[in-house]
Amino acid sequence: MGTQSNGNPMCDQTITISANGKEVVCTVRDKCMGCEPEAIDVSKAAFLELFGSLTAGRTEVKWWFN
């Protein structure tokens, strides 16, 4: 997304995240500062929908732009 997220064409697009046998659709809001290039940071609500609790911490998921 680049060092500056404001005005980035990826912002406001939706992605699907798949993990733990579940899928959730989320909206890209900004760059995840400190994340690896293909890593994402998600809201607590999305994480809970995928994993049921916040105890999993960092974990592997599959994700793609819709």
From TrEMBL:
The UniProt transmembrane annotation reads: none
Listed A to Z, the keywords are: Signal
**What top-level branch of life does the organism fall under?**
Eukaryota
Keyword Zinc-finger in record: no
User: What name does the UniProt record give this protein?
Assistant: RlpA-like protein double-psi beta-barrel domain-containing protein
